[in-house]
Amino acid sequence: MAHIHEKIDFVTDAYIVNENRVLLIFHKKQKMWLPVGGHIELDENSDAALLREIKEECGLEVEILAERLTRNDPNHKHLYRPEYLNIHHVNEKHRHIALIYFAKAKSDKFKLATDEHDDIRWFREEELGDPKFKILPVIQFYAGEALKRNS
Question: Which of 35, 43, 46, 129 is in the most buried spot, having the most CB atoms within 10 Å?
C-alpha cells in the first residue's frame, strides 16, 4: 500500500518464529531483509493490519504472542500490546511508527508474495549476524528477542 500520510504512517511488524528460526522477507523496494508487516490502513485497527499483513505476505497461520485485555467492555475493543515501538525514517521526508509484535507459526510452510518480496526464508539465530545477509542491527535485535521469547 502507498503511504497514507505524506509525513508519517503507522505500520505493524511481525517477527514470526518456528522451531528456533525467525521468518524474514527480502523487500523488493527497500532491498533488505525485514520482518513481515506493513501499513495500518485507515479503515482497520492494528490487530486487523497485523493479521492481514501476515496472511498477505507469507500465508502462515500464527499465534500472536502478546497480551490483550479480556475485559468485556462494549465501548472499547482491546488490542494486542506490541512488544516494542519505534519511529524510523523511510526516506528523508517520510517516517514510520512501527508496532513490533512476536508470533509463533503453526507450521513452516510459507508462501512468497512475489509482488512485494524477492525472497523469504527462515533464519537461525547464528545466521542473523552473517555479513552475507546484511541484516540491520535493529532487525537482528528484534529477531533475537522473538527467538528468546519462543525458546
Answer: 35
